[in-house]
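User: Here's a structure from my thesis project, written as structure tokens. My advisor, Dr. K., wants to see whether a designed sequence matches the one we expressed. Can you design one independently, without my sequence as a hint?
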């Protein structure tokens, strides 16, 4: 169940305008998973897990902005937020007679509460006719408490400056450079323990989790070509402290937690090209790819490795042709997948290639659209390799390798959309 109520009001003030925004969200999530063990159609036992979450969020934000204050466009404001998660995870073992016995997980019943406030100011101005400077500073303070199976309380505060230069020389070129201090938002579910029944493992909760913070440097060059087409290349370097990944727990599990310092480097490229100049009426081709490398010291092996879940590259290609009331297209996706590094396991999700999606679209009127989509057109399988170590990944030799394969085959979707407005 989800309830959301929000609104905003804007009024003139001191040569500019002030805007007040409010948002209230209430969400209740209940989920039950069951796994039964059977021998010759006879149930010999199993497991069940009932998850009950109540998530509440209340946000109030006030922003004053003015387009021209001594040659600067300015924006300043404050924001306050109250976030909470009330969780109850009931994990039970069922014997052959159907008797249920609850197994207590670390931090499976807890209330996580965050009181957060921030004050910010942004200002920008043109230095020349084609060069712009933007500056900003945010101060954020919060108080985080965990009550229940674990008790923790801490206060956090951060300064988050940012600066960027935007240059638009002649000839359709656009160059941007920026440096930003960021602090990640915490996922409250990371504080709570739960079992993954289909994977036969427990995710520990971590009441001491802290948000990772980073200095992020970005640079990009973009050029318009072939009318409304563009070519863009972007490079980035992140210097991260308290990398959020997976760490061991005293109970023998692993949980979301903080490692030491790490780095992330990447290069992204995109080509968005109209094909009409090449004789393909209504055609458009979009190519996008990323190369990236992440590095952090593993808490078990002491060696450098990638961040959990991060791949080293990805490639997307999309062709679309619009022919009046009709349109069709084909998309291609490829990546090598990524590995999640756990206490006693390397869980690698292998890439699916070539993963193709095709569609055909008919618009009989401006308000009505009929779309036929074929997903996984090449009928490729999703595979996953789990490599286990005993007692943990400090052991150099795997104790077990598990290979999983799934194929959802070609999926056909027919969608009819009509706007009655």
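Assistant: Designed independently from the structure alone:
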């Amino acid at each position: 169940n989800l309830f959301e109520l929000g609104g905003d009001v804007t009024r003139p003030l001191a040569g500019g305008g002030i805007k007040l925004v409010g948002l209230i969200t209430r969400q209740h999530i209940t989920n039950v998973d069951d796994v039964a063990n059977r021998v010759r159609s006879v149930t010999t036992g199993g497991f069940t897990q009932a998850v009950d979450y109540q998530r509440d969020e209340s946000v109030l934000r006030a922003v004053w902005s003015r387009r021209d204050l001594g040659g600067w466009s300015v924006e300043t404001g404050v924001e306050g937020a109250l976030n909470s998660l009330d969780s109850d995870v009931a994990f039970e073992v069922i014997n052959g007679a159907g008797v249920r016995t609850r197994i207590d997980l670390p931090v499976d019943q807890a209330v996580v509460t965050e009181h957060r406030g921030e004050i910010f100011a942004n200002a920008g101005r043109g230095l020349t006719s084609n060069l712009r400077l933007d500056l900003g500073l945010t101060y954020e303070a919060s108080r985080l408490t965990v009550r229940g199976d674990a008790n923790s309380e801490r206060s956090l505060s951060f300064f988050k400056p940012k600066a960027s230069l935007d240059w638009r020389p002649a000839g359709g070129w656009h160059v941007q450079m920026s440096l930003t201090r960021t602090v990640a938002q915490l996922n409250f579910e990371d504080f709570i323990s739960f079992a993954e029944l289909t994977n036969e493992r427990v995710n520990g909760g971590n009441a001491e989790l802290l948000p990772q913070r980073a200095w992020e440097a970005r640079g990009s060059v973009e050029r318009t070509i072939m009318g409304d087409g563009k070519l863009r290349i972007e490079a980035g370097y992140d210097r991260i402290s308290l990398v959020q990944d997976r760490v061991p727990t005293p109970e023998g599990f692993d949980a979301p937690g903080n490692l030491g310092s790490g780095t992330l480097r990447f290069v992204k490229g995109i080509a968005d090209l109209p094909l009409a100049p090449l004789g393909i009426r209504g055609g458009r081709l979009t190519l996008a790819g990323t190369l990236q490398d992440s590095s952090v010291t593993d808490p078990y092996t002491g060696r450098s490795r990638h961040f959990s879940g991060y791949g080293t590259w990805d490639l997307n290609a999309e062709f679309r042709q619009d022919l009046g009331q009709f349109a069709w297209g084909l998309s291609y996706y490829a990546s090598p997948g990524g590995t999640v590094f756990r206490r006693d396991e390397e869980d690698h999700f292998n890439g699916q290639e070539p993963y193709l999606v095709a569609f055909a679209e008919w618009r009989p009127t401006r308000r009505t659209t009929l779309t036929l989509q074929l997903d996984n057109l090449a009928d490729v399988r999703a595979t996953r390799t789990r490599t286990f170590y005993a007692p943990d990944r400090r052991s150099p030799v795997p104790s077990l390798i598990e290979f999983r394969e799934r194929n959802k085959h070609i999926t056909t979707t027919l969608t009819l959309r009509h706007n009655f407005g």
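When you compare it with your expressed construct, this may help: The chain has no helices and 27 strands.
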